[in-house]
Specification:
Length: 125
């Protein structure tokens, strides 16, 4: 959800994660032009400097590139995008497990929460 951030990590990191997810899911396809900084800052409800920091980091990571006179684009490196797609489920799972443990759920009970949620739409062992 754009504009909603949690306090557990820096906003620029959360923006990076959202953009990476958009690249992985194809919402931002390879070679796609990315909106200008100010427009993206408005869309994500952040300061343009925060957005610029996020985009610069994504460039440093290789997921975006700048063409001098025409703006930023999503990488066309399909191997990099494939690697991102492969990594995301493990990262999401790790965050879920960490959050559940932080809530005091015993590690052996976590699978039953997930199973119940998938079957009934409600959590709980």
């Amino acid at each position: 959800m754009k504009g909603h951030y949690d306090n557990s990590q820096p906003i620029f990191r959360q923006i990076i994660d959202r953009i990476l997810l958009s690249i992985a899911t194809g919402e931002l396809p390879p070679g796609c032009k990315v909106a200008p900084v100010r427009e993206m800052a408005q869309e994500h409800k952040v300061n343009p400097n925060t957005m610029q920091k996020s985009l610069a980091k994504l460039e440093e990571m290789g997921y975006l590139f700048t063409q001098r006179t025409s703006g930023r684009y999503v990488t066309q490196d399909l191997c990099l995008i494939k690697s991102l797609k492969a990594r995301l489920p493990a990262q999401i799972t790790q965050k879920y497990v960490d959050d559940m443990r932080e809530c005091g759920v015993p590690i052996n009970d976590i699978p039953s929460y997930l199973e119940n949620h998938l079957i009934t739409g409600k959590g709980g062992p």
